[in-house]
Amino acid sequence: DNSRRLRELGATEHTEMWKEIVPTYLDWSTFMGTGDYWIVRSDDISIQARYAERGWINGLVIGGPFVKGHKFEVTDIGGSGADWDGFAMTWDDRRVFESFPSEFSVDSLIHIKYTTDRFYQAVSVSHSDRSGNTWRDSTPLRLLEISTPGGVRITIALGKNVRHWEKRFMDVFITMPFQASGQDGHCGRGMRDFNIDWQGSALAAGETLFSWTPPALLFADKARLAAARTDCVGGEEVEDNRGACESVLEPTEFGMLFAKACMQDVCTGGQEMLERYEAFALRVFHEYA
Question: Is the pTM higher than 0.85?
C-alpha cells in the first residue's frame, strides 16, 4: 500500500518525500572508488557495501540491533555453484535460497522475496531488437525485495555479464525513515545537507560485517583502492548524455529528477546504464506514485 509506505517514511504524499530525497541525486557525485564502505551507519542499522572497479557494487550486508544481531549478506564470491552463478546469499552465514523464485523470512525480523526483475524485463522487451546480441539480451537480472523492522526496505537488483565481461553487480535502492539517533554513510545523514563524506565512510579495521574478503582487498594499497576513475568510457563529455537520459526518464513522473545522476553514470558505465536507469524510474514510480 503506497499510502502506508509514505507514512512509514514520515511523509503524507509522494511529493513531500521526494523533495527530501531528490536533491541527494542532484547533488551527489557518482562514487567511483573501490573497497568496503558504510552505506547506512546508525545505532540500530548497519548496512555495508563492497564496491568493485568504477564503483560497481558487488556485495551488500545488512545487520545491527534492528535485526537483533543477525545479518543478511549477498556477495559476489566468483565462479559458479553459489545461489546464482557466483552470488552467495546467506542469513548468519547459512545459505537461504534453494530455488528460484522463492521467499525467506525469520519471525518479524526480515522478509525477502527472490524474484524476477519485472521492471527491467519491461524495459528489455520495449527495446529488444530480437537479435539476442545486445547487453539487455545477455545480462539477466534478478530481484531481492527485502522488508525489515522500522520501515526499512531494500531492493537489490542482481545482474551478471556485461557485454563481453564476466561481471556480477548489484543496484541497491534503500528507503527508510530518518534515524533519531543520527546516521551517516553513503546514503547521507538525513539532515537535508546532502553532503557525503565518501572516503570517511570506508570501513575501519574490525568494522566489517562481511564474511569473506577477496585477497585483492586484503592486500591492495588503500590509496589506489580509493582512487576514482571519472573519465567517460566512450570518450564523450558528461553533458553529451543529457538528451539520452532525459529521453528514457521522461515517461515516468519522477524520472527527470534523476537526469544528472544518469548522465554521470552513463559517462562512467557506458550506454547500457540508460536501461538500468529506465528500469529504476519504473520501479520508483510503481512504489510511490
Answer: no
